[in-house]
Amino acid sequence: MKIENTQSQMRKGILEYCILSILKNSEAYPSDIIEKLKKAKLIVVEGTLYPLLTRLKNAELLQYRWEESSAGPPRKYYSLTKKGITFLIELDSTWKDLAKAVRLTTKTKKDE
Amino acid sequence: MNKTVNVNLAGIVFHIDENAFETLNNYLNALKNHFKNEEGGDEILKDIEGRIAELFTERLDKKEAISLTDINEITTIMGDPSQYDDEIEQEQSQESQDKEEDLRKGKRRKVFRDEEDRMIGGVCRGMAHYFDINVLFCRIIFIGMLFLIGPGAPFLYIMFWIVLPSAKTTAEKLEMKGERVNINNIEKNIKKELNIIEDKIRDFDRKFTKEMFGANSFFRKIVDFFIRVIKGVFKFAGSFFGIFCILFGGILLLLIFSFAFSGAEILFHNYPMVDHVFNDFFNNKSATWLSLFIGIPIVAVILFGLRLVKNTKIHMNYKIGIFVLWITSIFFLLNSVKDISLEFKEEAKNTIIENIITESDTLYLSMNDVNRVLDNIFDTKGFKVTPFEDNLIGIGMELDIVKSKNDNFNLIKEATGRGKEKHLAKEMAEGIGFEFTLENDNLIFDDFFTIATQKWRMQELDLTLELPIDMVVFLDHSLEDLIYDIKNVHNMWDYDMLGHYWKMEKEGLSCISCED
Which of A9, A46, A74 sits opposite B77 (nearest CB)? Predict the structure, then answer.
């Protein structure tokens, strides 16, 4: 068992959750999302995001609209679909459970 | 000075240095390659191109053309396709990857019939896949065999048709096709094997066999193929044998059942004595053990047949249980046999001497109702006792004629019987009765002896006629089965003595009507 496999599996789910969370309140275009993710050190390279966005869009969790840009080509502004909102709500509770589970199981005596 | 080229990225035209273009082109091709199998790959690529165009636009505020440095920076920002995998790898277990790899390399190639691309049954096509030879070649071989072994070829084909499964699932189709073992590979294999032979001279170890007959060698494939075919043939023949076992076992079992429920009449219809002995000695309990003793192996045969036909397996515990039951049945059977043999342990004799009084000096000896019993009974099976008209009677008497020690004319009846104990044996012997009638000078023997006890304990009856000197007896032909080893001066056989007058002389019985 490779550590990379486990790490990427952990990261993958969290990445999807974070992307959906970023889009929770307002729509955004990839560069905005990337900036936030980079700040959070969730991704290193930008290329990673695009396949993910496409997959989420194909899964009908995201939708986008085109907007003309003064600095370059038109941009895709992504937002959550209805399905995406429900999905995110479920992920929220799952995450809370997981976070709790991780906190409880990794807690040592010293932490208490 | 750098030559620039124009590129169109996401609908915007950029000037780009030639060497920078090369790098960008390579990068985009690498991305294209990476996403080619992914759903929405084109869209992802367009999005990335759009992003690159955006980054270009940012940089072109201060200059006119994109340089190699810009491209390198941008590719660093966007990342190498291999990094995507690290960050968000598609789930795929190592195992399934290994399996796919094996399939690609043809390690797990199997023989199937290719029904998608068939002429008759897809046998040739399937074999062509397996050995990776041209299907035409395979068909020529089959047609060639038609000339060589005649009607055997179609039979062989049909056999393969039955034996080989058809590739139905995608996995099976992949397994069927596997890796190409082309001429180059064969050549490579042979060269490799030649090298190994050289090595072998130096160190003889298992390496050779492994390479020669290893999982991937051509020889191994041929061997595997034949093993598969042979297995298939056995399976096929096994099914037939299995059906035979089931039928054979079923019929036998039916016989055993009727045997257990209705007694032995069905089996011993023509042998009433065997039936009588069986009923007498085998009570219900021992009959049950006997049925188990015979029945269990038959059931085993049926189960074996079922296993061959339907692959039904019996749990080990049941097997052990049944085996133990069988051994138990042997034990109880041996016990019954011991009990039965004890019934014959002791022997006793009872001798009765009857004086025959006659005026005449010549007696005509004959027997009553000859063959009355034997005509009705198919075979006594060597028993000297048989059931007849609801009675147990004796039929195997023996008559001897000897010289009387005095002037008395006697019939000595020596009865033998057996029993568990001496007095029981004596009872048996005393229960034997034998009658004869004397009318004028005719002495007529009964054709049977009676058994008062109505139980068979190996009763025998020996009759001895004591004849005084100078008396004459005539032996009628009806005595054929009664007389036994009568000594006479001519040393004649019993049968030849019939129909003659015999006179007792000092030397012994002598024929007075025979022509010398």
Answer: A46
Phi and psi at B30, nearest 5°, equal -60, -40
* Residue of chain B whose alpha carbon sits nearest to that of A42: B87
Per the CB < 8 A criterion, the answer to whether B392 and B454 are in contact is yes
In chain A, the residue whose alpha carbon lies closest to the alpha carbon of B43 is A54
Q: Do A12 and B11 touch (CB under 8 A)?
A: no
Looking at CATH, the fold of the domain delimited by A7-111 is given as Arc Repressor Mutant, subunit A (1.10.10)
Q: How far apart are CA B413 and CA B363, in angstroms?
A: 19
**Each residue's pLDDT tens digit, A92-112:** 999 999 888 888 888 765 554
DSSP conformation class of B470: T
Least confident of B1-15, B178-192, B271-285: B178-192
Beta bridge partners, B418, equal B347
Domain ranges of chain B: 4-87, 256-299+312-342, 346-511
Instruction: For residues B292-297, give the mean pLDDT.
Output: 84
Domains of chain A by residue range: 7-111
Please judge whether B47 and A11 are an interchain contact, meaning their C-beta atoms are less than 8 angstroms apart: no
A41 touches chain B (CB under 8 A): no
SS (H, E, C) A15-78: HHHHHHHHCCCCCECHHHHHHHHHHCCCCCCHHHHHHHHHHHHHCCCEEEEEECCCCCCCEEEE
A73 touches chain B (CB under 8 A): yes
| Residue owning tokens 């009846």 | B413
Environment class of residue B145 by beta-carbon count within 10 Å: exposed (0-12), middle (13-18) or buried (19+)? middle
